Structures are given as structure tokens and as C-alpha cells.
Amino acid sequence: MFHKLISIYPLKNYRLLGFFPGQENRIYDMKPLIEHAAPFAPLHNEEFFTRVRVDAGGHGISWNDDIDLSANEIYEHGTAIDVASEEKATLLQAVVAARQSAGLSQSAIEEASGVRQPVIARMENATTNPQIDTILKALAPSGKTLAVVDLKSAAL
Length: 156
What we know:
The chain has 7 helices and 7 strands; from the N terminus they run E-E-E-H-H-E-E-E-H-E-H-H-H-H. By secondary structure, it is an alpha+beta fold. It has 2 domains: 7-80, NE0471-like N-terminal domain (NE0471 N-terminal domain-like), CATH 3.30.2020; 83-145, 434 Repressor (Amino-terminal Domain) (Orthogonal Bundle), CATH 1.10.260. The strands form 2 sheets. It has a 4-stranded antiparallel sheet. Strands 4-5-6 form a 3-stranded antiparallel sheet. The longest helix is centred in the middle third of the chain and has 19 residues, at 83-101.
């Protein structure tokens, strides 16, 4: 079977995040190839490594005409990851850290934001899927808000 990539993103430590159809995502570690396969040695240059692109048709990736990798390799030897769950956990940890660094209790957040304390507790314990409005309201008293950031800087 030939796997097809929708998109690819370079991550820290010479890892790639590949998105496949059906919400199947894989993280592929390029370090072994960079360190032990001479054709991949130029990827040790981080700026060059970040230039990875999905080839036309999605059946592979490349950096230039000489360095490429098949989508099958990434799919079959990559590690499956649920990006949404990972990023949700990171976001909720940041919400807790924002409240704590501002020296505010959950009750103080309730008083300032109107979000009830039990909702804040469930959100901070990741036992609920909070709406964006709830997260924004809970963050505001801490002087924080949400931002869209590049996956390259994500903690994946």
C-alpha cells in the first residue's frame, strides 16, 4: 500500500511531523539517517532541514533533488501521535501555570471571569473539553490569552 502525506512539518531535534489522510499523524526521527547515512548528512544544518516539502502527489518528501524520503517510510517507521490531545494537554498545563504565576486562586478566577470554580477545576484537571470562550475568560485575569503558533515551536 502506498501512503500519501497531506503535509509535513519539521520539529525540534531533527524530527518530522507528518499528517496523513484519516487524521493519522506520525512523528519520524531523522537523527539516525542524518548521523549514519551519508546522503542525509546535509540535513544536519538546521536551516536546510526546515526546508522539507511534500512532493507532488504526496508519496514522499524532499529537501532538494538529491535528498528525499518516501511517505511509506515515515508512516511505517514513524510513531503515531494524536496531535490534538497532545496540544490540548500542553494548553491546559499553560492555563494552570498562568493562574499560578499570577498568584490567583481558582476562586479569584471565578470572581474575575464569571467562569465557575468547578468548571475551572475540571478544565485544569483535563476532565472536560472546555470551549475556547471559557479558556479565554479564564486566562484574562492572569493577563494571558491564546495565540496561534508554528508547530516548529510546539512541545511535541
